[in-house]
Amino acid sequence: MVIKYIYITKNSEDLAKRLNNISMKDVKFEEEDIIGELISYKEFKSNKKNIFDNADFLVFIMATGIVVRTIADLLDDKLRDPGVVVIDEFGLNVISLIGGHVAGANHLTKILAEKLRANPVITTATDINNKGSLDLIAKKLDADLDSLRKACLNVNSSLVKGNAVNIYIQSDYVYLLENMLNGFNIFKSIKSFEKEYINRGLVANQESFVIISDEERVLSMFDEEVIKIIPRKNMLGVGCRRNIASDIFEKNIIKYLSSNNISIKSIKTIASIDVKKNEKCIIDFAHKYNIEKIFFSPEDLSLYDSLYESSNFVKKTVGVYCVSEPACHIVSDGNIIAEKYKSNGITVSIGRKK
Fold first, then answer.
1. How far is 65 from 83, CA to CA, in rounded Å?
2. Per-domain boundaries in the chain
3. What's the CATH code, domain 2-123?
4. CATH class of the domain comprising 234-352
5. In 109-164, at which residue ranges do the beta strands (DSSP E only) sit?
6. Cβ atoms < 10 Å from Cβ of 159
7. pLDDT in single tens digits along all 354 residues of the chain
């Protein structure tokens, strides 16, 4: 996580150094280490688009008015712009300016304010009303935010107004959303949620119904009136013979997912051994479904292959006793959630990132 501290005076430079060198060393942001970089305001102005586009956060230590005028022409998309925080040069106030939810500026503001014993200034309506927000939930679950733009606006507005927002959360994901659900009417059973939707969903226009699930059966139970958030926390480990046809590979993967009641839209990563990094069927599948690819060396996989069913043929061919399960083990932190699938020269394992 990269924070760029932009200073304009000697006092602001001293504060930037203090934050970068001392205060932030023991802080993690969304489980990532924070890497800081100091940039003078003059340097920022001379290369501002490049700096803006390549930062997770920009922390300006100067007057808010200067910042607004400087970055106004850089703002493009609230889902992709970096988080922007402003601090006065004496560290009295920390202001979340841009990207409060999706970019994480509100969270960073609270961290910096605590470090500086300063006043955190957060103006996001859901936050100041102590309500959850759909965009923050979607970000936490790595869901497709672009498809949820309008829904986020409508749901967050409903929460602030005190209107009913009904939400069902698959039990696997409840723990990830701790402290994010204030204001929601939470259903613990999909049957009770469905009953409520049938009874009231089609007539109560002021109410919203939200499903958080990766289960294909649950997602298909409801029409477009229900807002569907599909967590992208599932990981595939795969192995295959050379030159498997892409359509055959895809059909087998989809069959495996379907048999385990898991939506293809929930797959974040597909992993295999590095000798498969140019395998067309894997590349085509990842491209079609917008899935990231990760390939591991035999040395990496061999750390875990003894935990799973072994094959001397696979060992002789690629240097490890098995591929799909060790690869899945690594990308899912050891949380494999279903039995391995094996057919047509293809092996597939699935895990869920904790």
1. 17
2. 2-123, 134-229, 234-352
3. 3.40.50.11220
4. alpha beta
5. 119-121
6. 23
7. 889 999 999 999 999 999 888 766 667 666 677 788 999 999 999 999 999 999 999 999 999 999 999 999 999 888 889 999 999 999 999 999 999 888 889 999 998 999 899 999 999 888 888 889 999 999 899 998 777 888 888 899 999 998 889 999 999 999 899 888 999 999 999 999 999 888 875 555 568 999 999 999 999 999 888 999 999 999 999 999 999 999 999 999 999 999 999 999 999 999 999 999 999 999 999 999 999 999 999 999 999 988 988 888 888 888 788 999 999 999 999 999 999 999 989 999 999 998
